[in-house]
Amino acid sequence: MLLWIINMKRVAVVALLSLFCACGKLKEPTAPGTGGGDPIDPTATFSRVQAEIFSPTCAAIGCHDPLGQQQGMVLSAGRAYANTVGKQSTEMPQLARVQPGDPANSYLYRKITGAGITGNRMPQGGPYLSDAQIKLVRDWIRRGAPND
């Protein structure tokens, strides 16, 4: 019986060593919403987000302009930053519209990707933002959402 127990321990040790060797190197986990570890574009600035996305797309008449103010949010130049960064979302109050450094917990980012939202993906009815435009917003938020 003792010999059987010793042999079973050896089998278990060999099995565990084989398992560890087969796994290879473990990868470091990436924080949620960080873009899977891809580098942050240093040119992703609020000025670009405003000029390339908010002004031509979101601040259109009847949407997030001073007249429409959908969800109480105006995204026109001079007002967009104050209405987004660190401001509570009206659709999901547990989230900020833009949480600096955290796209996954920024409701604006969720709305343009269509993930984990209430209501419709933005821009409502499309056409939706391109992958490059979404990456611009994501990288600006990842940079800490500076007002630059």
Describe the fold and architecture.
By secondary structure, the protein is mainly alpha-helical. The chain has a domain at 46-142. Helices cover 40% and strands 0% of the residues. The protein contains five helices and no strands. It has helices at residues 2-23, 46-58, 80-84, 107-113, 131-142. Helix 2 packs across helix 5 (131-142).
Question: Could you give a short description of this structure?
Answer:
The chain has 148 residues and is mostly helical. Helix content is 40%, strand content 0%.
Write the layout of secondary structure elements.
Layout: H1 2-23, H2 46-58, H3 80-84, H4 107-113, H5 131-142
Helix pairs in contact: 2-5
Descriptive terms for the model:
148 residues; mainly alpha; 5 helices; 40% helix; globular; disordered N terminus
Helix content: 25-40%
User: Which geometry do the CA atoms define?
Assistant: globular
Number of helices: 5
- What would the average pLDDT be, to the nearest integer? 80
Category from helices, strands and their pairing: mainly alpha
Number of strands: 0
Characterize the largest beta sheet: strand count, sense, and whether it forms a barrel.
none
- CA-based gyration radius: 23 Å
List the helices and strands in order.
Answer: HHHHH
**How much strand?**
under 5%
Tell me the span between the first and last alpha carbons.
Answer: 75 Å
Weakly predicted, low-confidence segments: 1-8, 10-34
